[in-house]
Amino acid sequence: MSSSFSGKTALVTGAGRGIGRAVATALADAGADLVLLARSKEQLASAADEIRARGRSAELVVADLSDPSQLRQAGRAVMEAGGVIDILINNAATVAPLGPTERLAPEEFVSSLVLNVVSAAALSSAVLSGMRERGWGRIVNLSSGLAARPASMPGGNVYVSTKAALEAHTLNLAAETGGTGVTVNAYRPGIVDTAMQAWIREQDPRQIGDELHRQFVTSYEQGRLITAERSAASLLGHLGTEDNGQVWTVGSSPTAL
Fold first, then answer.
1. Which of 5, 159, 187, 248 is catalytic?
2. How far, in Å, CA of 58 to CA of 54, rounded?
3. Which of 40, 104, 153, 245 is buried most deeply by CB count within 10 Å?
4. Distance between CA atoms of 162 and 246, rounded to whole angstroms?
5. Which domains are seen in the chain, by residue range?
């Protein structure tokens, strides 16, 4: 299913690379203008050049969403850069820290919670009232299939817990927006060949755990990873529907309009 988002402005977080960049360029191909947010100015500039080459506008907001002070500033900067935000894709996340839970410091949990959950809630709050006023909006939170099987990633307690929390937040917020024209859904993008995957494979098995390391190396060696572009295309197929309060998965068929 293809959809046109001509005349819409989309904010994508973690837009400098990987899934976020692929979603941003797919939205540009579907006619949307973009506000790109990430912590790397160089990667954002490269993504913006790619989008502008497609004939769409791209504004940049540089921020580390794991930092509460930068998160507050980012909400204001987004509205200044994009004005009206019609589509919000909360993609920014971290898989760190990894390893046995008893080795992790409390501040590591907090930093990941802020980036993986609080930033999505905060940015949704920033754009939601405008979406309600216009009677149309799309919010999508990038989750993980691990939220459905949390025991399958030993050594990834923080990541799995935050993704489960993000899905709970998504479904609760969707209940608030029912009937307003604003939809809120989660998306499990599949096992995507990203820098995050490569980073995990490069970690010392003695630090993150042999089983966890073996899982990611095996997935790569068996060719189970998909491209970010394939995952983004699946997401856009769902984005054109009226689904609300759903957990979409890569490759599943979107509900017809």
1. 159
2. 10
3. 153
4. 18
5. 9-190+227-242 (3.40.50.720)
